[in-house]
Amino acid sequence: MTVNYQCLRELENQDLFENSDHRARFSELMSCYCNYPFFNKGLCKCMYLSSWDMEHFIQMLDILNNMTLDKSRDVELMKDNGKVLEYASDGYDKYIFQMSDAFLNDEPYEIPDAPIAEEGLYIMRRGLQAAQIIDRIFEENKNDEDE
Fold it and tell me: Average per-residue pLDDT in the chain?
């Protein structure tokens, strides 16, 4: 079973998609980009977050298309764009971009003790839940490859 399918199935089983549009956007990103050399678990987590709404989905698609055209082999372009978006953002989007940066750098992330709108806190908590599942799936697949 592919990582793509496993992630989709497990996130769905854990009821981590807000609606069918969220699921469809994530599925589209995964099926289009999971075989590129830059795809990794951090990017997968960012795909989950960006699939939350159309605005962020389009931003993600734009960056991924540029990475594809540039024949990127890593997520450096994604990191660079994320920093620009973080600095240009206000409200909870800023913290979600910080979370994404941590994901791309394979670093732990804790929700900061800052005044964040409830909607933002909800998205971030769900993102952390999804990240745990994605980490587990990638680890299980790594172990399968090692055997």
Answer: 92
